[in-house]
Each structure stands twice: as C-alpha cells, then as structure tokens.
Design goal:
- There is one protein chain.
- By secondary structure, the protein is of the alpha/beta class.
- The protein is built from 18 helices and 13 strands.
- It is globular.
- The two termini are about 20 Å apart.
Length: about 400
C-alpha cells in the first residue's frame, strides 16, 4: 500500500470526502487497522435498504455489538451521502453515547440537497484525492501522469495500457450511470453525456457556460447547473478569478478543472492521443497537473490556502495564486526547462499588482532552482513543497 499524506483524526469524528476510486475505504481500513471499529458500507444494497427505512437502527445495532467493539467508540460509515438522514442518528450517537464517526462520501450534493445534518462542527472535514506526486515518490513519472492521471486503480495498471484505457473509460461511464442517472440528478442523460465531453475539452479555460451550452444544445442555465453537478460530485473544481474585492471576485468568471488528468482525457475521448513535449497540448496538460497537485497538497497538508488565478486588463495571466493569511504566492506554470527573460519579466511585473507581500514563482521542468528578476524559477515539485511549507517529502522523478 502506498502511504497517504493525509493525517486523519484519531480522537474526533470526521468526514472524508473524495471522488470515487481515490482510496477512501482503503485509507480508513489502514487508519483503523488496530481499532475494533464497527464498519458499515452503504454501497451494500441490503445494508442501505435496511438503514434507509429506519436510520436509527445504526445505534441499536451498535448497542448489540460485543463490548470490545463498543469500547472502541468508533463507527465507520462508507458513502454516507446515500442516506443523508442517517446523520441525525450520527449526531445523537456523538451527543448521547460519545461515539466517534468516520464518514466517507463521494458527493456533497446529496447531503446539501437533502438538508442533511452536517453536525455543526462536531466533525472535522478531510478531502482525499488521487495520488500526489510526493506520495508516489520515485514511482512518479511525469509523462505517465500527463497521459493517465493518478487514480490508484489507474496507477496499479501502469504496465497494462489496454486495461488502463478500459478502466478510465469505465470510470466515466460508471459516473454517468451511478452518480448521475441512478440518483436522477438530470432527467435526460444524453445531453449530459454530450456535456461531459465538451466540458472535458474546455478544461482549464475560463468558464463560458453559454458557449458550452450551445455546443451541447442546452441553454446557459442548464450548462451552468451541469458544471455545478461536476463540482458537487467532486469530479471537478472551480478556480476563481482573483480580486482584492470579494464582490468583484465573485462576479468574475472562474476556470474549471477536472480532478484527474486521466479521467479528463477519457471524458474527452482523448486516451488514444499522445501528448508530445513542446506542443500546445503538452503545455496545457502540464499546467493542469501542477494546479491539481497544488489543490491536492493544500488539502493534504490542511494549509487552508485560497487558490485563484489572475487575468489583467491586457489578457495576460497569472496561472495560480496561493493566498495564505496576508501572503501571496504568484505562480506562472511553464512546461519548459528554461523560461525566457521576457516571460520572467512579465510575470514579475504582473505579480506587483497583487501588493507588497508577494513571492513570485515560475514552476517548470528546471533541474535546479534559480532567482532572476526577483522571480524564483524552480522545479515544480520543489516549488509546491516550498509554497505549502512541506518538508521531508520525496521528489517526483521523470
């Protein structure tokens, strides 16, 4: 098993959110390996049916367990969003019996839409993602991650490209079938299926829901709702536009990124396409990779940084801004080894617009770190670790 960085609580209840297939159940099993916890999977149809009719049975069942299990004071519930009402019994279990709960979920949407009891601070919240470069260490290969992503099952098939392709295509189809169609999130699956492909092709671009809607034959409001479904089911995330004014930031259009490069390429029907170094597609994929790695590292280290991008009036951009407290890291992402001096100076000037407390970075495929024009030019792995204050993690290797 590949160790994960995420440091789950051992003393209080928590939610563990993450898309399907990122290893939530595996992580819980490892985390509670030496604990006699009571474990429930709502993916089991009989268990789901039984508890859906009377969610309070979970506490009745716990009280009937052997003393050793009750004494552990831990109940693990997998895919809790399948029965949102069960959280009322979880709340009661915490308050009346001092039980601690570990609750996994692959969708925050059903919990919110079902007006679920989210425990009002009685449970911490963690997010698990596909493997980080630092978790894979020397097993990480940049070219492989750009093509296939880093879902655990995909990574385990790295020596079998045929099965890897089948897995990723199946992942997208399973998402459509089980998360969207079975949960009746949309009434007609075919427009949403077309939307998936167009949205994957639009990955990393400033969100234009109207344009995507026209390409899919749906209205702008439906297109926007579909993007929100992808976000709610953790298949993608919005990267907001930066502005010192919260009001202006909320009014500006975000970018949208898929949570994993392999799933994005499968959704776009691009798994058979190669990505050649120095090509436009390679640059886009490299930027996507660095941004999702920043998001993953932010969650894994519980840095609570705010991530955004910045576009100036002349359409020049800062690819990623990481705000921690009053300090900003201004990040340009380049797939080259040696950014040219024009790019360096442009980024230095753009960074000045953010204010005084700014560190400027160009994260790229450089072999060593240098400073030019006040900009830190760093191997992207080292730069992310510095920005998020991480020490002791292995470097990813090409």
């Amino acid at each position: 098993m590949i160790p994960r960085i995420l440091n789950l609580s051992k003393t209080r209840s928590f939610f563990l959110f993450g898309p399907r297939g990122v290893g939530k159940s595996t992580l819980l099993k490892s985390h509670f390996e030496n604990v006699a916890a009571y474990s429930i999977s709502l993916l089991d149809s009989e268990t789901e049916r039984r508890l859906a009719t009377r969610p309070e049975r979970i506490l009745e069942d716990w009280q009937a367990l052997p003393k050793k299990v009750r004494d552990s004071k831990w109940i693990l519930i997998d895919e809790v969003q399948r029965i949102p009402k069960i959280l009322d019994s979880v709340h009661r279990g915490i308050e009346e019996f001092g039980i601690r709960f570990a609750l996994t979920g692959s969708s925050a949407r059903k919990l919110r839409k079902g007006s679920a009891n989210l425990l009002a601070g009685r449970a911490s919240e963690f997010r698990l993602h596909p493997f980080l470069f630092s978790e894979l260490g020397a097993s990480f290969q940049l070219s492989d991650a750009l093509l296939w992503g880093s879902l655990p099952a995909s990574f385990s098939l790295r020596n079998d490209p045929v099965e890897r392709r089948r897995f990723l295509n199946s992942y997208v189809n399973t998402y459509l079938r089980e998360e969207v169609q079975a949960e009746q999130i949309v009434r007609n699956i075919e427009p949403f299926r077309m939307f998936i492909e167009v949205a994957a092709a639009a990955n990393g671009k400033i969100l234009n829901a109207s344009k995507v809607g026209r390409q899919c034959g749906i209205d702008p409001k439906t297109s926007q709702r579909y993007f929100e479904i992808l976000s709610d089911t953790l298949i993608g995330f919005f990267l907001p536009a930066f502005d010192h004014s919260i009001r202006k930031q909320q009014a500006a259009h975000p970018k949208f990124y898929w949570f994993d490069l392999g799933v994005c390429r499968a959704a776009a029907g691009m798994l058979d396409e190669t990505v050649s170094p120095s090509s436009y597609e390679y640059g886009n994929s490299f930027e996507h990779l660095v941004i999702v790695e920043a998001l993953r590292l932010n969650d894994a280290t519980e840095s609570n940084a705010r991530l955004s991008y910045f576009r100036a009036s002349d359409d020049t951009e800062i690819d990623l801004i990481v705000k921690k407290g009053k300090h900003f890291a201004s990040i340009e992402i380049k797939s080259t080894e040696n950014p040219d001096i024009t790019e360096i100076r442009r980024h230095a000037n753009l960074s000045k617009d953010l204010g005084k407390s700014v560190s400027s970075y160009i994260l790229c495929n450089a072999k060593v770190s240098t400073i030019r024009e006040g900009v830190k030019i760093m191997p992207w792995q080292d730069g992310l670790k510095e920005i998020f204050g991480v020490k002791g993690l292995a470097n990813a290797n090409e």
